[in-house]
Amino acid sequence: MMKTKKAIRVGIGGPVGSGKSTLCIELCRQYAKSRSVAVITNDIYTQEDAKMLMRAGVLEEDRIIGVETGGCPHTAIRDDVSMNMEAVEELESRFDDLEFILIESGGDNLTATFSPELADVFIYVIDVTEGGDIPRKGGPAIVGADLLIVNKVTLAPYVDVDVDKMKSDCTEKRGERPFLFTDVKKQIEIDNLVKWFDKNVLFTDVE
User: Fold this and answer.
1) Given the DSSP bridges, would you call strands 64-68 and 100-104 parallel, antiparallel or unpaired?
2) DSSP state of 102
3) Which of 38, 125, 138, 175 could bridge to 14 as Cys pair (CB 3.0-4.6 Å)?
4) Residue 149 contacts residue 46 (beta carbons within 8 Å)
């Protein structure tokens, strides 16, 4: 019998160093024991992000595929998604029960978005060290991602960033679309991240 159920594909984008890989690790840590999970990472010339996930030990290595895009990271998630789709198909062939796949973009900028052909849900990650004006600059990812994560919030005092102003700017740019101010490594706002993921990715009823 042919498999008809497809895994939910969650695109995770953001600039270099914003915390995309750390977010993937945390989501795997939260769900891998109770859900069938896999991860695809994108790097231009290496598989460093895939190796980072493997070293973290949050998933079996055969549930992680590193895609070497060989060029602009935006292209592989937005324009010509064939390499990533091949990785999706490979993972779905390995695991009949696969529930969701995290697809981590290579380091990108505020113009990067995922093709709807590739990702069902789009999470965009920025961090306070990039500057408090990042939300004001807007762009498709800031405005349109299903969830915006502003990471490394504990570093705000050290980089002279006004978190309240950033929150106000996020509200202005995103309207009703949700955002979270986190420090994933320090476990800040992880509970709310999990609640959002349960409701919007796994469609689990939460209070």
Assistant:
1) unpaired
2) E
3) 125
4) no
CB atoms within 10 A of CB 27: 25
In sign, the C-alpha dihedral spanning 205, 96, 69, 79 is negative
pLDDT score at 1: 38
Tokens of 69: 């895009």
What is the DSSP code (8-state) at residue 61? G
Phi, psi of 150 (to 5 degrees): -105, 105
Chain segment 116-161, per-residue pLDDT in tens: 999 999 999 999 999 999 999 989 999 999 999 999 999 999 999 9
Q: Which of 17, 5, 23 shows the shortest CA–CA distance to 147?
A: 23
Query: Whose structure tokens read 């859900």?
Result: 35
Bridge partners (DSSP) listed for residue 152 = none
d(CA 170, CA 168): 5
SS3 70: coil
